[in-house]
Amino acid sequence: MQPIAEGSRLCLIAGLEHGIRPPLDTSERLWRVSGSALDPWLTLLAALRLDAHALLGPALALDFLDDQWTQPELPTGELPQLYGLELRPLRIWRPLLDHLHEQLGAGRLVVLEPDAWGLPDTDGQEYRRQHRRSTVIVNDLDAANRRLGYFHRDGYFHLQDEDFDALLHPCGPAAVLPPPAAVIELRGLVRRPADTLRHLARQGLERQLERVPTRHPVRRWARRCQRELDWLLHEGGEVHFQAWAEAGLRPLGASAELAAIHLRWLSGEDSGSAHLLQAADALRQLAVLARALHLKGSRAAETGRPLEAGPMVERMARHWSRGMALLGAGEIVLDPPPGALGRPR
């Protein structure tokens, strides 16, 4: 893919100002974004007219790391096989603007993890309110007009003027420590038939199921969920609750939803894939409950009222167990539900 050059402007994928076809069916999405580095990739694939469903397999390997949930990882090793794309590290050793000119001019997109403080599409959230790294994919650079186009979360956006200066010429600690960066090599891009893509994704499914934790992650989370909620609703307030939810409920619910979308797509027209559809339904129900708990928790944080989360979390754990059992995900140690100890098994 050759860049479109207009004066000092470099743009690899043109026409995005007119909108992008959603990468997934968004009509019933509960979580528009997962909050992970996977989000802008899904939008990029849609802009390239590639089917993003094949990239969702890592959402199945969700795990709980004691005080937070993991997030879906980008399966970098599968990008060449699925789409002919390659992701390569970029070492920032000179001004970032020079690297953007060099790489975009060579036909490569640039992946950055800048401070979301200066990303205007997060207005009302991080924009000029809090500092947090967030993954963007740079596609369009117009240095003369101090304007930059980028994929971020579930859309394509532009920043300009002082936000452009803050990204390209940061001050303070950011000037000493440049953002992590990589480039996306587009020269080998390939659009595979749907059946071929599903076949490759099914091979990837086996690898993802091998990564499913061997101790029930939802039950491990359940042991501390109510205790943390009680503290947050009485001592922490709305801000602390949302921070807790971003590390817990969002990655749990969003990953379960992405996994359900992946499994439903993977089943295709295969009459022998009923177990995939049933597993997808179980994980979808988990996502529904996580969203409901998020909304209930937000209201409770605003009013200061207590919230009993135990029954909802237990139902979430059962849906996880059912989904993983249908998929035959390894030798999972299913922790017994509360009160089940001592009963005949």
Structural category is alpha+beta
Number of strands: 8
Under CATH at level 1, the class of the largest domain stands as Alpha Beta
Whole-number average pLDDT? 87
Examine the secondary-structure arrangement and name the CATH architecture of the largest domain: Alpha-Beta Complex
Portion of residues in beta strands equals 5-15%
Residues in helices, as a percent range: 40-55%
**Count of the domains:** 2
Radius of gyration: 22 Å
CATH topology of the largest domain: Cathepsin B, Chain A
Separation of the first and last Cα atoms: 60 Å
Pfam families: DUF1839
InterPro entries: DUF1839
Protein name: DUF1839 family protein
Describe what you observe in this structure.
InterPro entries: DUF1839. This is DUF1839 family protein. Pfam families: DUF1839 (PF08893). This protein is an alpha+beta fold. The chain contains ten helices and eight strands. Strands 1, 2, 3, 4, 5, 6, 7 and 8 form an eight-stranded antiparallel β-sheet that branches. Strand 6 and strand 7 form a beta hairpin.
Quick overview:
The chain is of the alpha+beta class. It is built from ten helices and eight strands. Strands 1, 2, 3, 4, 5, 6, 7 and 8 form an eight-stranded antiparallel sheet that branches.
Keyphrases for this structure?
10 helices; DUF1839; alpha+beta; disordered C terminus; DUF1839 family protein; globular; 345 residues; Cathepsin B, Chain A; single chain
